[in-house]
Amino acid sequence: MSEIKVLFATSEVAPLIKTGGLADVSGALPAALRAIGLDVRILVPGYSQVMSNLAEHEVVAAFDGLLSGFPSVQLLSSKMSNGVPVYVLDCPSFYQRGGGPYQDTGGRDWVDNALRFGLLSKAAAVLGSGASPLDWHPDLVHCNDWQTGLTPAYLHFAQQAAPSVISIHNMAFQGIFPPSTLQQLNLPPSCFSVNGVEYHGNLSFLKAGLFFAEHITTVSPNYAKEIQSEAAGSGMQGLLAARRNDLTGILNGIDMEEWDPACDKYLAKTYSIDDTSGKAANKQALQSKLGLDLDSDVPLLGVVSRFTHQKGLDLLLEIAPLLTELPAQLAMLGSGDEQMQNTARDLSQSFPGKIGTVIGFDEGLSHQIEAGADMFVMPSRFEPCGLNQMYSQRYGTPPIVHATGGLADSVVDCTVTTLMRGKASGFVFKGITAENLFDAIRRAVELYQNKRKWKALCSICMSKDFSWKKSADAYRKVYLKVLAKKIPTAKH
């Protein structure tokens, strides 16, 4: 097949606008796909942050009455800093506001989010159909999360429509709105059923995408299995199980240039798999920065996380006093639940020199923790993919993780056998309890005392390839599978 043309529709893309992992994927995956020969172009709303960060651009189309009663919209064309073409949906009354993409400055969801992201979904569908005003016509539209979930539904009812793929980055966010929204979004009443966009009497953007898209992907193979069960399916496990043959889990990659200990601008001293001597200097710098005892022999545990129930930080805080007796030190960076934040601060005061906490987000410190810690703790109750466990391995900092989602897919538990075979890359525990977490940390601390084995484990970690190349190849196979099944029939 000749070069595949893909419209990549997303609600955020780094570095133009970012609130979480979706932006990282949207910034990296299209570039990786273009690197293997696909013509991928991004579509993103023109938020204030996007407009201020956008390079030179031009108006390439205008949509009048894209949805009846909606404002007129311009389509701008530009390029990302990595060279990927980007279309920006310019509708100032919808997108150019204070606050963030989804919430106002007070942290409340924008009351018109259904219309704002309905407009984004509709624009993506128009560009993927015979009604597109552009000369460039995608072979396939790749949607991401609920914010573009209506795109496959709009395409289903369009003429000369390209097939669609939707990627689930987190099942917990579903874009659920009152049924009256259906009419505002110009969707036919017939699609408001269990075999359509209806979900417990409401309209669900994500349900629309899961039902109407030709294929579904999610961000790790294990998470693809988990979301077919009640525990992780967030109420949509039945639909996902029914579509299991059209569901593929593809592990995210990481930015191997931004996260590279050999040239990381944030580090006290750079290092590599061939010369890891600089890691000791980073540990000492981190201990000094967080007021920890300058002790090279005591293992230092690192945490960079949101302080939430999902991330399992409550379990770590519960056992923190016991960790100091192993002995071990703890360096934490994050924010979230106020009670957890207060507990973390209290622990730092109760165990000076042993536990250090910084509340908030600090990009430089997050790199310094990955490099300066001896091991990294991620006890998430669920984790669609996760990135820090990959960063940690790249930095020779074996992760300690719960066996869930992408954590289970990207970390191999260290045992005598896996270490001997050169496969071990961290410590994995099953059963999300404080006791099981403590046992995994204790195993790591015990191995740390054997410098030869610990060095071997760190070397295995640093040799792993978490680049986007493998993921891009997997997405290309999905696209080819979808296009091979495409039957050009008009849909009504």
Question: Could you explain the architecture of this structure?
Answer:
The protein is α/β, with parallel strands linked by helices. The chain folds into 2 domains: 266 residues, Glycogen Phosphorylase B (Rossmann fold); 188 residues, 3-Layer(aba) Sandwich (Rossmann fold), CATH 3.40.50. It has 19 helices and 18 strands. The chain has a 9-stranded mixed β-sheet with strand order 3-4-5-2-1-6-7-11-12, sandwiched between helices. Strands 15-14-13-16-17-18 form a 6-stranded parallel β-sheet, with helices on both faces. Strands 8-10-9 form a 3-stranded antiparallel β-sheet. Strand 16, helix 14 and strand 17 form a beta-alpha-beta unit. Helix 1 packs across helix 19, helix 11 runs parallel beside helix 12 and helix 11 crosses helix 17. The mean pLDDT is 95.
Q: CATH architecture of the largest domain, please?
A: 3-Layer(aba) Sandwich
Q: What is the strand content? A: 15-25%
Structural class: alpha/beta
Shape: elongated
Radius of gyration: 24 Å
Q: Tell me about the biggest sheet? A: 9 strands, mixed
Low-confidence stretches: none
Relevant CATH superfamily of the largest domain: Glycogen Phosphorylase B
Our measurement of the CA-to-CA distance between the termini, rounded to an integer number of angstroms, reads 29 Å
User: Oligomeric form of this entry?
Assistant: single chain
Strand order of the largest sheet: 3-4-5-2-1-6-7-11-12
Tell me, rounded to a whole number, the average pLDDT: 95
Helical content stands at 25-40%
And the CATH topology of the largest domain? Rossmann fold
The top level CATH class name of the largest domain: Alpha Beta
Count of DSSP strands: 18
Task: Output the number of helix runs.
Answer: 19
Number of domains: 2
